[in-house]
Structures are given as structure tokens and as C-alpha cells.
Amino acid sequence: MRPPLITLLLSSLITLAGCATALDPPATLEAPETQYDATIVDADNGTSLSIAALADALTEADVIVVGEYHGHHGSHLLQSRLQAALYRQNPALVLTMEQFDLDHQRELDRYLAGETGEAELIEDASAWDNYRASYRPLIELAKARAMPVIAANAPSQVVRCVGRQGPDYLDTLPADVRAQLPANPFTDTPGYREKFVTALTGGHGIGEEGMNERMQNIYKAQLLRDNTMAVEILRARKLYPGHQILHLTGTFHSEERLGTVALLKQRAPELDVVVLTPIFWPTGQSQPNLEDQRSKGDYLYFLQPLPKEYRDAERARAAMSDRFSQAKSASCE
């Protein structure tokens, strides 16, 4: 961890005449104006930073983890600009991504080498639906600059089947597939289970003893993703010694330094890992309450909230049921 920046040395200044003069209050933050904008803040002192200033502050970091709200233009634009700024100051940069599964590394490498086209990459590597709008700029910069890109996520089919059948599903995998996954794929860290259950139950925590088998399996699938990403980040450091790692992931995997970040530090406590966390600017407020957010990351970036998907509760339930049914259709045999 970088040492905290000290920005206030005294609460008042004593003048030569013996009068106390209060320091000026901290500058107010500027709310993001559009869905593309992000207001970047140092969590230690509440100071707003530009992309260039942020990149400069990250010079000594071994691993930079940028959490995202999947599909939010502000997250993806920040990631792209930060990638470019980091590369300008240190071309020894590796991009690791949750958005590609490790079993598609070959397809990703072939595209980066110019052997396939973008549509082939999307089809062959099972790229996310929002690839063109969200991740194309990152991959294209990496391709143009010969920057290594690591597909860091666990295979989605394996994750789904662990979620359905439990951790024993890994014992049914062919040896070569199992060898790609971490030796200890379900390692846990304090606090993460509670956070996961709270998110899954809408804030109505049920305690570890209250987790049924289905919920336990879903949590194991989550741990498989986090452990795999942590191991792939460490593999990237071995493959490219002396390189800085820029890792992109959904914010749940990194905020509060839990998930992938906690598992990475557990495996390699010597690493300097810096976390950037997205937060929605509070609706109807002129300023966010930073005290409530400081623990979420070393740096925070505020975004406009996303539009509400559904206002019709019945349509929302139907859409969720449809998504769940599609996810269940793949076989685990």
C-alpha cells in the first residue's frame, strides 16, 4: 500500500499577532455531467485528480485493480484513458481482464497478433455482449502497442456448473482443464462471505448457518472466479517480470479490498496493490459523503447512476426469470 498523503497539518494557523485563522475548506467535487464522465478522488484526502495525475500517483504500484460497473460508459472510458496514461509513463504494462476466460487465451493472442479479425475474436473467444462498446478500445491499444493481455477469468461453463452442482464438479473435469484452475480454487477471506450473502439477499443477512446448499454453491462459484483471477495476475507477473499489471474487473471482486484483491494479497503479501472503485454520485446531493466511501478503495471515481432498467415489477421478474432460464440451459454433463 502506498503511504497515506498528509494534506492537513494543522486545523488552524496562528498568526504573528496571535490570532487563529481557519484553513480554507476543501474544494468541492464536481459531479459527473454525462454518463461518460468520472470524478476521480483520492480516498485518503478527498482531493480530485485528473487521469494524468492519477497515473503519476500509481507509478510505483505493482498491480492496479480498476473495478467497474459492467456496461457503464464512464467506467470503460476511465479504464481506456488510464491504460493509455500508464503506458505513456511506463510501456512495461500488462492488461489482465475478467472479461475474457482463460480457456480463450489462444484466441485472444491470435487476434492481438493480427491473425484473426474482430468478429472472429468475438465469436471464438465468447467475448461479452458489450465488447465493441466497452472493451474494444483497450484491446486495440494493446494490439497497437504490443501490450500483453491475459484472459484472467475462470471458464464460464465451469463456473456455472460449480454454481449448480457444487465444488465436487471440478473432480469431473479432464486433467488438462483442471490444471488450468488454481490448486486451491475455493480459498476464502474474512468478510467476503458476509458481503456476498448481504448482496444476494438484498441486505437481509442470514448468517453462514442459514446458507442452503444452492447458495453455498453459488458462493463457491464466486470464489472460483476470484481465486482464478488472483492466480492469473500472479502468473502474468511471472511471465512478464518488471511489468506493471492493470487488472479490470467488476467492482464486487475488488471493492473494500475483498474478493480478488484479498486473495491476491494473501498469496503475495509483498505486492503493492492499488484499488480504484466506482461509486454512483448520490442523487439529489451536491456532494458525496466521502467518510462513508473511503474504505471502498484507494481511489474512488464517481459516476452518474445508470437508468433504472424496469419500473414495472412484473416485467422485471419476467426478465430475471428469462435470464436465469437461459443460464440453466447449458449442460454440465
From TrEMBL:
One Pfam family, short name: Cofac_haem_bdg
Name of the featured protein: Ferric uptake regulator, CjrA
Signal peptide residues on this chain, from the entry's feature table: 1-22
Keywords assigned: Signal
The Haem-binding uptake Tiki superfamily ChaN domain, residue ranges: 55-263
InterPro entries the UniProt entry points to: Cofac_haem-bd_dom (IPR007314), Fe3_uptake_reg_CjrA_prd (IPR016773)
Domain of life: Bacteria
Organism: Marinobacter similis
